[in-house]
Amino acid sequence: MADVEFVNTEYGKNWVRLLHIRRLGGKQQDVRELEVNTSLTLTSQKDYLHGDNSDIIATDTQKNTVYALAKTKGVTTPEQFGLDLCHHFLSSFSHVTRVKVAVTMAPWRRMKVGGQDHAHAFIMTPDAVRFCNVEQARKSTPVVHAGLKDMKILKTTQSAFKGFIRDRYTSLPDVDDRCFETVVYSRWKYSTLKGLDFDSAWNTAKSAILEEFAGPPSTGLFSASVQKTLYDAECEILGRVPQISEIEMTMPNVHNFTVDMSKFGLDNKDEVLMPVDKPSGIIHAAIRRKTTAKL
């Protein structure tokens, strides 16, 4: 059609799963399990316009490339593997103008047996799922986002919610003390990769969220709202990792309602609660460092 134009074109391979075993000598081994999505943008759209596939790097080829680079480059971090894939496609094919790679890492952790780390046995510990998005255009530096998701956390006190607007539809009472449960999603952008340790940065961000949520082990930390806790965690991450320039976070408010046992003649002092995940509140904020004005 003469009266239409392309806004965007890209294609790729999704859900490429791989398990990479790093053999460190003797029986000592390490593992990384990844799920990888690749996406390419080409200089032309003749495949769309004319059915001409002569420029196509088949999605099956992209899948095979994921496995081949895991062998030739190794897998240290999801972010570095994403960078390796971007470099490969841009350096190997001159008609590729942009590469996008999304990587999710399975949360395997070395098993402890008798209090000691096992040499080659691992246990799945899904307290948080690590992921990243790497994008690079030709003649441009790569843009790396990293993050965590599905981190389910709960504290049973030191949380309140009150002072909100009341109208004729409001039934929620002010609460001075309540359970605070959420499932954290957070994604941040690195402004520079110089001097950056991807593992250290990710672990630092995760620790900052947990510390701002929970507080000191013996006393805890008061939360006036999900919004306040979320914002404090984001600020703490920016303070600890200078290479992070912006961050977003989502915290749904997973409710736990006290079960009414008065009909049974029992006094339930917030000891037995009913978890309800739907409907739930959803709290989101994205912040970034302020840019310094140049005179």
Uncertain runs: none
Q: How does the helix and strand content classify structurally?
A: alpha+beta
Approximate shape: globular
* Order of adjacent strands in the largest pleated sheet: 1-2-3-6-7-8-9-10
Beta fraction of the residues? 35-45%
Biggest pleated sheet? 8 strands, antiparallel
Oligomer: single chain
What is the terminal separation in angstroms?
49 Å
Helicity range: 10-25%
Query: Average pLDDT, to the nearest integer?
Result: 96
Radius of gyration: 24 Å
- Along the chain, the helix and strand elements come as EEHHHEEEEEEHHEE
Can you count the helices?
A: 5
Question: Got a strand count?
Answer: 10
Question: How is this structure best summarized?
Answer:
With 295 residues, the chain is an alpha+beta fold. It has helices at 46-50, 59-72, 78-92, 198-214, 226-240; strands spanning 11-25, 28-42, 96-105, 108-113, 116-124, 129-137, 143-155, 180-190, 244-258, 273-288.
Give your account of this protein's structure.
By secondary structure, the protein is α+β, with helices and mostly antiparallel strands. Helices cover 22% and strands 40% of the residues. The protein has helices at residues 46-50, 59-72, 78-92, 198-214, 226-240; strands spanning 11-25, 28-42, 96-105, 108-113, 116-124, 129-137, 143-155, 180-190, 244-258, 273-288. The strands form two sheets. An eight-stranded antiparallel β-sheet has the order 1-2-3-6-7-8-9-10, with helices on one face. Strand 1 and strand 2 form a beta hairpin. The longest helix has 17 residues, at 198-214. It is globular and about 75 Å long.
